[in-house]
Specification:
Layout (H helix, E strand, L loop, with lengths): L12 H33 L1 H37 L3 H28 L1 H7 L7 H30 L4 H23 L9 H25 L11 H37 L3 H17 L1 H19 L3 H28 L12 H13 L4 H17 L3 H26 L1 H37 L1 H23 L1
Helix pairs in contact: 1-2, 1-6, 1-9, 1-10, 2-3, 2-5, 2-8, 2-9, 2-10, 2-13, 3-5, 3-8, 4-5, 5-7, 6-7, 8-9, 8-14, 9-12, 10-11, 10-13, 11-13, 11-15, 12-15, 13-14, 13-15, 14-15
Length: 477
């Protein structure tokens, strides 16, 4: 095992981004395809089950947001420790992040299990669907700690610059889930037909296996875990550093599903078919945005390592390259989804009401996907700098200040189409704002780091100079 090196501070910027992003694309694509498969299998069971899955989606995203937030905090502090060549600190932070994520998610899941009926009633779920939703969510909540701890562990791996190993683990988890889905949903031999509960159980088993694999490889291959019990001041310091980025990052990500919960409640008045159609559309969206999720996963470690050494030009180059790619690929995605809008939704449901809503979404929202990709990348770069509050501000403005109010207005005058148009408008406006803000922040933060650097570097250079002079004098004598 070799200590992690700050390899992202040298070499071609574009090559680093490609080399790191491609494996993550594979991993996230497989996870999205697994979600796709879940929806398809449940769609074969019935539209009520598909609607129940859709009601649970915003809640699952809130919980996932906690994992993403803790992962962002972990990635930021570990990457900066690696950039400063402090491997022991990086290892301590990675270990303490797992302890923190397990404790946090255990509390969240306990609260979630106790509040299933009132929460989903608030989201507009019909009373006759509550038992179906409740049974599904209880299994889902039990598996959350495995999901979150595994995701946080993978964030530590990516902070070292290694994206291949966590991506392989994600692929294995997705394949296991898809293999288990039909067995548990429809039953096989002695295994009973579990339907919606089977989808939740498949996810639980797959994530538990990958959780074990993540911990094993963090310790054996990357030397990023320590089994020495930390002293309380150490633990407090680690958790404080992680939560400094992790709490705002979790809040940033939680804003999205909370807003989606509001939108789901708005759509519920059009019937459960409208909710099911929206659920189908959001799963299609998740799959098409996979490249942006991947870019946001790698830009944080890149920014963190380069921020530690004041390499503002490398960071600005990375942000520019990401922006150009987001805008170009976003346009292509919009064209492809519009072309397939009459075919893809029909894979999930035979109901015209369900497919009509999904088709409408695919005609309106994708035009803004390039800008949405910019928001993801810029928010991740803020977290990589250790400055999470601008990302919070961008997300609050996008979802709370622009999207939800415009959705109410759009709903009043244009119905469902107005709700979807509000989403596109929010993405476009905040994509531009986030890019301009990130550029300014990078330059300011790097200038600050450079000004601080002489107090650390100068003594070392002075010592080296003294030794060099002494060596030269010895040689001449």
């Amino acid at each position: 095992m070799k200590p992690a090196q700050a390899r992202l501070t040298q070499g071609p910027v574009g090559q680093h981004l490609v080399d790191m992003t491609v494996p993550v694309i594979y991993g996230i694509t497989m996870m999205m395809l697994q979600s796709f498969a879940d929806a398809w299998f449940i769609g074969q069971v019935g539209d009520r089950e598909l609607a129940a899955l859709s009601f649970g989606f915003p809640v699952l995203m809130v919980v996932t947001s906690v994992a993403i937030g803790l992962g962002a905090g972990t990635s930021s502090v570990v990457a900066r420790a690696i950039g400063a060549h402090d491997h022991e600190r990086a290892k301590r932070l990675a270990t303490d992040s797992l302890l923190l994520s397990f404790g946090v998610t255990a509390v969240i899941c306990a609260i979630g299990i106790l509040t299933i009926d009132p929460l989903f009633t608030l989201l507009g779920a019909p009373a006759d669907m509550l038992p179906l939703i409740g049974s599904y969510m209880r299994i889902l909540y039990i598996g959350v700690p495995f999901v979150v701890v595994g995701m946080v562990g993978m964030s530590s791996m990516r902070a070292t610059g290694d994206t291949r190993l966590p991506s392989k683990l994600m692929v294995i988890a997705a394949v296991l889930n898809v293999v288990l889905d039909p067995i548990l949903i429809f039953g096989l031999g002695p295994i009973p037909r579990m339907e919606l509960d089977g989808a939740a159980m498949a996810g639980l088993l797959a994530r538990a296996i990958i959780f074990v694999g993540t911990v094993f490889f963090m310790h054996q291959r990357l030397d990023m875990l320590t089994f020495r019990l930390p002293k309380f001041p150490q633990l407090k310091s680690s958790w404080k550093d992680i939560l400094h980025v992790g709490v705002p990052a979790a809040a940033t990500n939680a804003i999205i599903p909370i807003a989606l919960g509001v939108i789901t409640a708005m759509l519920a008045k059009y019937g459960t078919d409208a909710v099911a159609g929206f659920g189908v559309a959001t799963r299609i969206e998740s799959l098409t945005l996979v490249v942006y999720y991947a870019m946001s996963a790698v830009i944080g470690p890149f920014v963190g390592q380069n921020m530690s050494v004041g390499e503002s030009k490398r960071i600005l180059t990375a942000l520019r390259l990401c922006t150009v790619f987001c805008l170009a690929s976003g346009l292509g995605i919009a064209v492809l989804l519009a072309a397939g809008s009459n075919v893809i939704p029909a894979l999930f449901s035979d109901s015209n009401e369900v497919t009509d809503v999904a088709t409408l979404f695919m005609w309106i929202v994708p035009i803004s996907y390039g800008a949405y990709g910019m928001v993801m990348v810029m928010n991740a770069s803020f977290n990589g700098m250790g400055k999470p509050m601008p990302a919070v501000a961008v997300s609050v403005a996008r979802m709370v200040v622009i999207y939800v109010p415009l959705a109410f207005i759009g709903d009043r005058f244009f119905g469902i189409a107005g709700i979807f148009a509000a989403y596109a408008a929010a993405n476009i406006v905040m994509g531009l704002v986030s890019y301009l803000w990130a550029r300014r922040s990078v330059q300011a933060q790097c200038d600050k780091n450079v000004h601080r650097a002489p107090t650390v570097v100068a003594p070392t250079e002075a010592v080296v100079a003294r030794y060099a002079s002494a060596s030269e004098a010895t040689r001449r004598s």
